Amino acid sequence: MADDLRRARSAQTRTRLVETFCALAADGALHPTARQIAERAGCSVRSVFHHFHSLAVLIDEALAVQSARHRPLLAAIPARGDTAGRVAALCRQRRLYFEELLPLYRAAGAPAGTPGAAPVLADDRARMRQQLLATFGPELAAAGDRTRLEALELATGWEAWWSLRADHTPAGAERVMARSACSLVV
Q1: What is the Cα Rg of the chain in Å?
Q2: What's the 3-state SS for 119-153?
Q3: For the purposes of burial, counting CB atoms within 10 Å of the CB of 50, is it exposed (0-12), middle (13-18) or buried (19 or more)?
Q4: How far, in Å, CA of 60 to CA of 114, rounded?
Q5: Please, are residues 153 and 132 in contact by the beta-carbon 8 Å criterion?
Q6: pLDDT tens digits, residue range 59-111?
Q7: What are phi and psi of 87, to 5 degrees?
Q8: Environment class of 70 (CB within 10 Å of its CB; exposed 0-12, middle 13-18, buried 19+)
Q9: Whether the Cβ atoms of residue 46 and residue 66 lie closer than 8 Å to each other
Q10: Running DSSP on this structure, what letter comes out for residue 71?
Q11: Distance (Å, rounded) from C-alpha 57 to C-alpha 128?
């Protein structure tokens, strides 16, 4: 019984630390310190390193949690109807998804900023590729060109968003992404 309570408290503290890191990043803290995280979470700095051996591990956990939480934003778009409308819907979804994770990636230093970010990014890429194939299957099949899919992945992926957001608002970045995607699909 005592072990179960200890495990439950430990899990709660771990979750609170992850959520605190997410909140600090969302509030604009580019590189939250262990002290900032601990103070806001209401625990000791030692607890941060007890549950996460380094801040990089905490960042990786936060990325995984936020990515899983917001993956429904990458819903399938039926491959019928107006192509430009589907491009707009896809870019809107990606904007919403990317903007939810962008503060965490900024805290990590870049989309591939921590070692544990690679699996999250790989899973994102696979899901986004599937979304592109489901959404633009007819157009991509008609083109019969695999490089078109790869170009579309680049134009609508994390690297493009990261680059676009350096100079554009979210709405501006979405417009540029949609224009690029439209030129590749239509």
Answers
A1: 19
A2: HHHHHHHHHHHHHHHHHHHHHHHHHCCHHHHHHHH
A3: middle
A4: 7
A5: yes
A6: 989 989 999 999 999 988 999 889 999 999 999 999 999 999 888 888 877 77
A7: -60, -45
A8: middle
A9: no
A10: G
A11: 25
Q: Per residue in 114-149, pLDDT tens?
A: 777 888 888 889 999 999 999 998 888 876 777 899
Tokens of 178: 């949609």
- What is the arithmetic mean of pLDDT over 28-57? 92
Q: Which two tokens stand for residue 162?
A: 């990261």
Alpha helix positions (H), the chain: 2-26, 34-41, 45-51, 55-70, 83-108, 117-143, 146-156, 158-164, 170-185
Which pair of tokens denotes residue 170?
A: 């979210």
Nearest to 58 by CA among 113, 121, 3: 113
